[in-house]
Amino acid sequence: MKEFACRKCHMLTTEKRCPNDGSNELSDEWSGLIIVLDPKKSQVAKTLNITVPGRYALKVS
Ligand SMILES: [Zn+2]
What we know:
CATH class: Mainly Beta
CATH topology: Rubrerythrin, domain 2
Structural class: mainly beta
Low-confidence stretches: none
Shape: globular
Number of strands: 5
CATH architecture: Single Sheet
Number of domains: 1
Radius of gyration: 11 Å
Mean pLDDT: 95
Order of helices and strands: EEEEHE
Largest sheet: 3 strands, antiparallel
Strand order of the largest sheet: 2-1-3
Number of helices: 1
Bound molecules: zinc ion
Strand content: 25-35%
């Protein structure tokens, strides 16, 4: 199934809206899958301003 990445928070979803912030600005051109389990302990999460555990794209275009 195709996954889309939210342009705002980079969260991945198969829905038409981002489950994290409700944005419909989704892109199917993304790369670099990140799974964030504990945003407080993840340097990548800090860099991308991720505060909710989940699956994210590193780059969204
Ligand atoms: Zn989002």
